[in-house]
Design goal:
Layout: H1 8-20, E1 24-29, E2 35-37, E3 40-41, H2 48-54, E4 62-66, E5 69-74, H3 79-85, H4 90-97, E6 102-105, H5 109-116, E7 122-125, H6 135-148, E8 163-164, H7 167-174, H8 179-202, H9 209-222, E9 227-228, E10 233-236, E11 257-262, E12 264-266, E13 269-270, E14 273-278, H10 285-304, H11 311-328, E15 362-363, E16 366-367, E17 375-378, E18 381-383, E19 395-397, E20 400-404, E21 409-411, H12 420-427
Bound molecules: glycine and manganese (II) ion (2 copies).
């Protein structure tokens, strides 16, 4: 079903962005349709930034912001196309539904852009966008149009318009979530946490990793969320020590733990949750020892995360605690070995439209501090890949999603059972 209207927040975000540099022109492109094989496409997902600024949900679009006005360029309506792929918004409807000042056919883009650049002092355009299928071709086309804009600027020989990267300006906006975004993430987290809880209850020896993936998908879809925010990781036993294991095709055995890292998207905002639990009913002692060390860190980070504290401080604290934890488990770091052998990733990352969301962690040697409205993951882990200890083959990650509030943080994934006792009680 096509949207009838979108929240006024989308327009407010465009206004905020333009305020950051009022004599600039901003140029953005939406996602393209991506061929999977021959005539089959991957499911379409809008480019995160394009969604953030428009709410527009069809491929092949562009957005130009200039002089305080928004120009949305969209695909035209086309009956022969609509027979196969369904109704499009088309040019006239797009401006009304997405509340832009103007809408144009995307076919007019090359003609309109140089006109719109008239009077602009600079252009923000992301070169080499990793989400573009052929970034070099698009960059060449856009840069040529920017060059063509020079005659509109008179005969002052002012040179080419400077082209700047919009990423830092967008990161500043996107890292602070507004109340609507928070509600979307809150629901993504709640549905995903309950889907994880469901897995915990039904998992038994003999099931396949893919059975858990299927059950997770089914649960979230039954609860109204249609896609996951990233490829889920369902890693039994030793597979949990491969950080981004996504084959998910092995049998789960008694005596193993399984690590599940999966999160559903709600209107493009994703949850990012990991739980690690026994395939059977109870943890073995070595598994329990490792699990409880990781949980201790996860709980301490929830206590420490608050406005004014930097991400780096939290990461450093997790490293300190995990290093002490390893020592108390009898694991001695030897020679060149560092904590990275057992904890090779960071404590977490911002979360939102992208699982690893927009936002700056440090700049020019200065750490950014947390502010109310930021959402970040809290995902300490310990992974024993080598043969050296009784913990060999154990991988544990415990990942929650935290909303930074005025006084501390809210654990958006609090519905998950986390202690050994809570998990074993749900499994028996
Ligand atoms: N699911 C990817 C991550 O935890 O960063
Ligand atoms: Mn994560
Ligand atoms: Mn994750």
């Amino acid at each position: 079903m096509l949207k009838q209207s979108v929240s006024p927040r989308f327009k407010a975000r465009r206004t905020e962005l333009m305020k950051k540099d009022s004599n600039a022109c901003f140029v953005f492109f939406g996602a393209e349709e991506l061929i999977r094989n021959y005539s089959v496409h991957f499911p379409f997902r809008q480019h995160s930034t394009f969604h953030y600024l428009t709410g527009y949900d069809e491929p092949g679009a562009a957005l130009v912001l200039v002089n305080g006005e928004s120009h949305l360029f969209v695909l035209e309506r086309d009956e022969s196309h609509e027979i196969w792929d369904g109704e499009r918004y088309g040019v006239d409807r797009a401006a009304k539904v997405f509340d832009t000042d103007f809408s144009h056919s995307i076919r007019k883009f090359n003609q309109k852009l140089p006109e719109l650049l008239r009077g602009a002092g600079k252009v923000y355009y992301l070169l080499n966008d990793r989400e573009c299928i052929h970034p070099a071709d698009r960059d060449q086309r856009v840069l040529k149009l920017i060059y063509e804009a020079i005659p509109f600027r008179g005969k002052g020989n002012l040179g080419n318009l400077p082209v700047l990267d919009p990423t830092p300006l967008l990161a500043d906006l996107r890292v602070l979530k507004d109340s609507e975004e928070i509600e979307l993430i809150r629901k993504a987290c709640s549905v995903s946490a309950n889907a994880h809880k469901h897995l915990l209850k039904i998992t038994k020896p003999g099931m396949l990793e893919s059975d858990l993936e299927t059950e997770f998908q089914y649960f979230v879809r039954k609860h109204g969320l249609m896609q996951l925010g990233y490829n889920p990781i369902v890693a039994g036993g030793m597979n949990a020590t491969t950080l981004h294991y996504v084959r998910n095709n092995e049998i789960l055995k008694e005596g193993q733990m399984v690590l599940v890292d999966a999160g559903a998207e709600n209107e493009l905002y994703t949850a990012d949750i990991t739980q690690t639990f026994p395939v059977g009913v109870t943890f073995f002692q070595a598994q329990k020892n490792v699990y409880e060390k990781v949980l201790e860190v996860n709980r301490e980070i929830i206590r420490l995360a608050k406005p004014g504290v930097s991400y780096r401080t939290l990461h450093d604290e997790s490293v300190k605690m995990l290093t002490e934890g390893l020592k108390s488990l009898g694991v001695v770091l030897s020679g060149q070995e560092s904590f990275r052998t057992y904890f090779p990733h960071g404590l977490g990352h911002y979360l939102g439209l992208d699982v690893h969301d927009a936002g700056i962690y440090h700049e020019q040697g200065k750490d950014y501090v947390l502010k109310p409205g930021m959402v970040m993951t809290n995902e300490p882990g310990l992974y024993f890949r080598g043969n050296e200890t009784e913990y060999q083959g154990i991988g544990v990650r415990i990942e929650d999603d935290l909303l930074i509030t005025e006084n501390g943080c809210e654990n958006l994934t609090h519905e998950l059972p986390r202690t050994v006792e809570e998990i074993e009680a749900l499994k028996s």
